[in-house]
Amino acid sequence: MTVTQMLQPRAGLRVLVTGGASGIGLVIARAFADAGARVHVCDASRETIDALATVEANRGASGGESGGKSGNAGAITATLADVSDRDAVERVFADVHAQLGGLDVLVNNAGIAGPTGGVDQIDPDEWDNTIDVNLNAQFYFARRAVPLLRDAPDGGAIIALSSVAGRLGYAYRTPYSATKWAIVGLTKSLAIELGPAGIRVNTIQPGIVKGPRIERVIAARAQQLGLSYDEMEKQYLEKISLRRMTTPEEVAATALFLCSPGGSGISGQAISVCGNVEVL
């Protein structure tokens, strides 16, 4: 195998992406599908699930790579599920068994922005919800995925999505930042625990990623600080060494690399894909 060949994931990988019907998760799911993987996603939004199903059906009808059939290489199937609901997680894995017959890669991507406000202003229920979706769900999916990943022919992989807020302090976003730091601890602990079974565990820490979600975050932060949206966006960009936002495709490319033969020696790492965010 050449070095160039080592940069491509093995065709036919069985991949589960949580929160995979929109945003970064969808870009990751499609990247794996385009690389020949069999991909299943879950998402809490019926609207995004239905939109994904329509796109997949159209791809199949036009003779696209997916073929439009569940279980074919390149196809993306989906389950409607709230990742913080343990019963829903069980339904996801029932569908994974039915659609994929096993698992090689878990991408723990699902997450929410959580509330914006001073610590004395945050509603405890919003704190609890952020913990449930961003952190507890990662545990729920990992505990169900690991028995399947142990049987992966080339060794399984878990990729957890954290954030640069998991290596930097983030004022007025304490629930979000706390969960993203915790994900790094979970990742490093699982890498030690699961390494002897050949399962690699890494986390990707995206920075300020282009898209509707960061636009909402900037707007909320601007309102909190009494600034205009443009002023707040300028402040965000000035904190990035490259002075630009990261793209979802750059995050997805890193996920693919971590699941390729070229990434087979990488485990227990928190990899920032952020243009070097210096401070939040």
UniProtKB/TrEMBL annotation:
GO molecular function per UniProt: oxidoreductase activity, acting on the CH-OH group of donors, NAD or NADP as acceptor
Domain of life where this protein originates: Bacteria
InterPro entries registered for this protein in UniProt: NAD(P)-bd_dom_sf (IPR036291), Sc_DH/Rdtase_CS (IPR020904), SDR_fam (IPR002347)
NCBIfam families: PRK12826.1-2
Protein family per UniProt: Belongs to the short-chain dehydrogenases/reductases (SDR) family.
Name of protein: NAD(P)-dependent dehydrogenase, short-chain alcohol dehydrogenase family
Record lineage: Bacteria, Pseudomonadati, Pseudomonadota, Betaproteobacteria, Burkholderiales
